[in-house]
Structures are given as C-alpha cells and as structure tokens.
Amino acid sequence: MKQSYSSTIEENLKQYNSSLDGLNSEQAKSVYEKNGPNSLGEAKKKSWIIKFLAQFKDVMIIILLIAAAVSIGISIAEKSTSELVDGLIILAIVLLNAIIGFVQEAKAESAMEALKKMTKPEAKVLRDGELVKLPSTELVVGDIVVLEAGDIVPADVRLLETALFKCDESSLTGESKAVNKDANLILKESTPLGDRKNMAFSGSTVVNGRGLALVVGTGKNTEIGKIAKMLEESKKEETPLQKSIKQVGKVLTIIVLVVAAITFVVEMFARPDEPLEAFLTSVAIAVAAIPESLPAVITIIMSLGVARLAKRKAIVKRLHAVETLGSCEVICSDKTGTLTQNVMTITALYYDGNTELSPDASDRIEYKLCTEIMTLCNDSKKNKNKFVGDPTETALCDYALKNGFNKSKEEKLIPRVFEIPFDSVRKMHTTVHKKEDSLIQYTKGAPDIVLNRCTKIMTGGRVCELSTEKKNEIISANKKMGGNALRVLALAYKKLRSSNPKTATEEDLIFVGLVGMIDPPRPEVKDAVKKCLKAGIRPIMITGDHKHTAFAIAKDIGIAKKESEVLTGAEIDSLNDEEFLKILPKINVFARVSPENKVRIVNGLKSQGKIVAMTGDGVNDAPSIKSANIGVGMGITGTDVTKEVADIIVTDDNFATIVVAVEEGRKIYTNITKTIQFLFSANLAEIISIFVATIAFPNFIFLSPVQILFVNLITDSFPAIALGLEPAEADIMSEKPRKNGTSVFGGGMGYMVAASGIIQAELVLIGYTLGIKFFSAEVAMSMAFYTLNLIQFFYFVSMRVKRTAFKSNIFKNKWAVIAVAFAVGLLAIIAFTPLHTFIGLTSLNLTQWLIVIGISAVIFPLTELFKVIRNRAFK
C-alpha cells in the first residue's frame, strides 16, 4: 500500500473509501468499531503501595531485613531485650531509607496523559455532507476535516486543499520554523517526516491559513501514537552505582553466610554445651558484616545533592539519576530550544553594500525602506507584549521594533489596501499600501526569485539601474548568508502609477536589501560545550532541522569542525546495525532525524558501553530521553510529555545548567565512594577482628551485636553523611568520566578498603589482647569497643581527601567537624556515665584510655601511607 504522502488526492480518497463530502454516519460508525477511538489509550499506573514496596527490592535492604528478623526472632525465643533493640533499630533504618526514596520518586509516570493533552477536544468534520463539530476522539480514517489558524491538528491527515497553510511541527520534528504546506505535492516514499509537506500531523499547530484534509491515521497509528508506543516499550535501566551496590550485596551475602557458618562451627567445638551462645556469636559476625547505615546514608547524600541542584535550577525526579550524571560520557542534545533560543532572530542585513546591523544606519533611506518592507509586508499581529504568527515574520517585526519602527503606528500611517499572498510556487509575498497620495508596493521573498524581478536598485539614497556588477554583489552577499545557514529574504518595492491597487505586479521592482535570520545559539552554550570537552564528555547534536543549518550551529558552538561529522536520518536508515555502529564514533551531529532515529542513536551509544544523557524539549525527544541512561527535560519550553519521562528537569532551559548538574553528579559519586570506603573499611575490620578473636579466644565474648550496631549506626553514620557534603575536588571537571561497568571499588578503592580494614582489625585485636593479658575480659571488651570507635575518627580525618591530609583544611567542611564532634560526644556520654552498662561495657582508667587512644591514632599515618601507594599505583 502506497503512503498517503506519495499518493495523489484521488488515490487517497479511493483508498479510504471517502469523498470531498466526507463519510456518512454509517461508514464512520463501521470504521470506529474496527479501529477504536482516536486516543492514545490509558497508561498503566503503579499504585502507591507498589511504588513504596519497590524501595525494598535492593539486595542490601533484603539482607538488612533478614538480619532484623533473626534478631527479633532470637529476642522472642530468649525473652531478651538487647536483640529486640538490634532488630528494631535495623528496621527503623530500612524504613527511613524507604521513606526518603519514596518521597523523592513519588511523581507518577504519566507521559500518556501528557500526550493526550496535546489533542484538541473538538474537530470540525464533514459528516453526511455537513460541517459539524465532534469530539476529536470520534474521528476515524476517511473523515474530512477543516483546519484553520490556531487549530491543533486532531489526527494525521493528508491535505486536500491549502491556502497559505503553515504548521508549527517543532515539538514533533524539531524544526524551529513553521512549515509551508501544499496539498498538490506528491512525494517520494523515502521522504522523511519533516519534509512531508502535503501532510499535517496530530498534535502540531496550524499557525497560518486554512486547509481541507483527509484523516489517514488516528490514535496509536499517528506519528505521535508511534512515540507513545516507544515510551511504553522503553524501560529505565539501573544506574551504575545501583548495579555496583547490587553486586556488592550479592558478594556480601555469600561472605556473611560463609563466615557466620565457620564461626558457628568453631564456637560449637569450643563450647559444645552452649549452642545459643555460638549462634549469637554468628549473628554478631553477620551484623558486623552488614553496613546497616549504608543504604540510608547513600539516600541522604543523594537527597542533599538533589536539594543543592534545585537551588541551581535543576530538579531531580529520580534520585539515583544524580550519581549517573557523574559518570556521563555523552550528552545528546536536541538543537531547537536547548542549544538554541527557539526564536528566529535577525542576524544579518545587507543594503547598498552595507552589512552592518548597527542602529547608527537608521537615518539612511535604504535602512528605513528595509524596516518598512519587513514589517508592513507582514501578516504577524501584536498580542499583548509580543508578535504572534509565522516565526519568520515575527522575527522581522521584533527586529524592527527594537530599532524604533512601530508596526501598529506605521500601519495607520501607511495602511494596506491590497495583497498578493505568499504561495510555494511564486515564493513571494506582496502588499500594496497607501502612502500619502500615492500607492506603494512592498515585496519580500526568496532572493533568487525577487532579484530576477528587479530592474533597479536603491543605492546612495537614490534609485539606479541594477547593473550586472551590483547583481553579482547581491548574489555574493546572499551566498555568504546562506553559507552561515541563515534563512535569507530579499526586500524590494516600487511605486504604482495607477490609482488601482489591483494593478500591482511583481515585475520591474526596485531592490532594497537582504535580511538573514536564524535560531541562534544560547549565549552560554559555547562555554558549556568547552567544559564538556575538557571533562572528557562528548556533546552530540541531534535535531530534526536541515543538515546545513545543524552543522552551522554545531560548528559555531564547538560541537563539530567538519561537515563529514554530520549524518542525516535518511542516511541512518540506509545503514544496517553493523555499519551504523562503525560510523557512530565519528559523528557529532545528526540532522533531519525522526524519533526512531534518536532512539537508535542513544541505544547505539549505550551498546558501545557509553553512559548517555539525552536532553530535549519536544514530544519527538521523549522516547530517546526515556531510553537514555539519564533523561534531561527542559522546564520552560519542554512539553508535558518530555517533563514526565525525564529524570532531571532544567528549569531555566539552559544547556550550561546540565554541565553544572554533571559536576554535581561527579561530586556526589566521589563522596558516595568515600562513604562506601569509610563504612566498608570499618565493617571489614569488625569481621576480621571478631573472626580472629573467636578462634584465638573461644572462651571469651569479643563484641556483642548491640555494641557493633552502635559503631555501625552511631560512630560511622554521622561522619559518613558528612562525607556527602565534602566540597568537590579542585580538578573534578578535568578528569575523564569513569567507564561504564567500573566497580565502585575500582581505581584503588578496593585496595584502600582491604588495607585499612586489615590494619584497623589488627589494632582492635591488639587493644583486646592487651586487655585480656593485663586486665580482665570485661576491660578487654571495652578496650576493643572504644579502640574500634576512635579508629574511625582518626581514619575519617585522613581519608576525606585523595591527597595528603596535612595540606588540607580539615575545617573546610563544617558538617564533618560537627558530625565528628557529635559522634565523639555520644561516645563520651556512653563512656563516662552509667549508660555503658546497658551495652555490656565497663569503665576504663587513665592508663587504659591512653592505650586505647595511642593504638587508635596509629591508623592516621598508616592511611596517609596507603594513599601515597594508591595514588602512584592507580594513576
């Protein structure tokens, strides 16, 4: 079956069993029953309960829940309160983590609802030969609809008649200017979406003229319906950190089970008559192995990062998206409205050999004529504080107004009395005005056509013959503007000899000038692109606009240098997957692409191991935004659809804000890795020390579960959260992004965890051994407990920075100082009040305290040494 745009009007009417009088009611009912309503259907929504329960699916959370269940089970069986406290504390931590995650991600996925808002509730339809208004949901293929300026196109339609008909399709195709439509065109099957000028698409807006059209696609069979289907099919992947933590959780589960089992066996050999004590020791090992506070601490760190980003005009909808930004390797950005201003702007003006836009020229007659023609041969209207209409014409009026030419005032002084409207064959627009006692004709249009109609030129304040030399000069100026991807219009006029305006002809015109316009880059984009390149991030432009325009903008802002770096949607479609993936690393600009092309680009980059961010504002960007590792929507110009599927919304539509968000993401990820290093080092020290002590001193209790929980939840948690507030390292945006799949323990962090954990365990065991040898079992337990706690504070001061801590300002993060002071204060309250008896500790004398402090302080210089080794070995 031939496509509607490649078939004649008669063939289309025959194919859909319709006529210019439309369908009758019986035909419409039959088609409706077959195809259903003209809607996108209902999106499947998760209940609030399901969304809340999803917070508990993480492996680490499951391990914590099992540990809590075991502790509570033991407390019930033994009627013991300490294990009950352990279990309840763990449950409280898990619940806190779930609440924070749920609140942050509470916004429902309602992209389908947003898409439905783009369709107009009513449509003007010919039914039974009469023009009636019907709900747009009742439209069927074969219906004949009437479209006028201001209407939202209710379905995909093949145009049958057009009069000055223009559509704004920017949200669907990405093309910034309104598209002229022509019902009489018959196009090739391979014609891309943005060039199908005999079609109008559901959700686009009629900005000018009138049209009669045949409905050829409804509901999910429209172009916007295809986008909706892609949104339904695409699923969000786990972030790199989530994958890494998940893997760590699996490994941790195995370690917990193996070590706890070995401990139980050893304890049973040592104390065969005390199986419960052996089991409790195994539980202590399990509790020691699990960093109970880690999920909550990571969630809190990311939430604090989200709050900081909100102040910098980036709203994070999906919590884990924050850390994904830190590993971003490619930013695929839509052009229109993201890299550019989405406002056609006059950037070049040529008259009498002059190319200056300076207002100083406003006293020259040629300049005055240019502004007169721009605004009077113009159909845009003033609505409140802005001009509305065709973007090209509003750009002309905006420019003239900024330079002192008031359209409304001049229209009263020089009223329009006749018009020859623009059409796609003539490519000109002519208006006739009454100026004083005579008639004057203004014409604007395609430079080559208008110039061929000119016989004279306004130069030096007077009208002269248009010489070949002058004509070549104008052609050269036009080529130069076109070479910069400007849309160029020629401006001409003539005085009518007749008093009858209808005698106006577009011949023997007087050439006045050329005006060039473009949707220009945002002022801050060049610097943002430079920052990306310096940070090892590859910016890619993906647009529905023309190849020439896309390259000009990309070259201007630094994304591309050569035209060979540009690939069109048609060229993408001609490549198989192997060919496409081979050429993908060499392409930095994709032009004239469809939504399907965008998804293919994003998925291609992901298949090559890249972490991809996709930005955009139109409906056409939504599927690729959802497919990307991280989707970034625009807050001002962005459609509801894009905002709903995005992970992050940039509220000022500023590309530079995305770079700020990437920097914040890097800082958050770095601080999370520091937190993981800090917590896992402590947990490893606990596992090793308890395991060794169980074997070496089988008749003594080393540390109880509640004591280990105190270290994990009090001593470690507050400094760990403070690590999330560490300022960014000075060179954070000079480093290359971490590679996809890199373990959270990569880059030497696994070495730091192992080395620090082993040394911490040795120091704790030294304290315990000295307590057993010279004092008592109760004192030994207390010395081990306080040594384990104080070690964390000395270790924290050193590991906060990559380089040496001796050159670092330890007070630069006030929250770190407060966190350590708070944790030390709590430890002091435990140590020097009767509260220590509640967790099975005893008082220490001055000598014992000096031993504890001396042993604990050893970790600081050793950590500094470990950092030197790491920084040399893992450059």
Give keywords.
Calcium-transporting ATPase, cytoplasmic transduction domain A, alpha/beta, eight-stranded mixed sheet, Rossmann fold, 33 helices, 875 residues, 16% strand, Calcium-transporting ATPase, transmembrane domain
Radius of gyration: 36 Å
CATH architecture of the largest domain: Up-down Bundle
Strand order of the largest sheet: 8-25-24-23-9-20-22-21
**Uncertain runs:** 107-116
Distance between the termini: 61 Å
Family: Belongs to the cation transport ATPase (P-type) (TC 3.A.3) family. Type IIA subfamily.
Membrane topology: Multi-pass membrane protein
Domain Cation-transporting P-type ATPase N-terminal: 3-76
Transmembrane segments: 59-78, 84-103, 251-270, 282-310, 676-696, 702-723, 744-768, 774-795, 815-835, 847-866
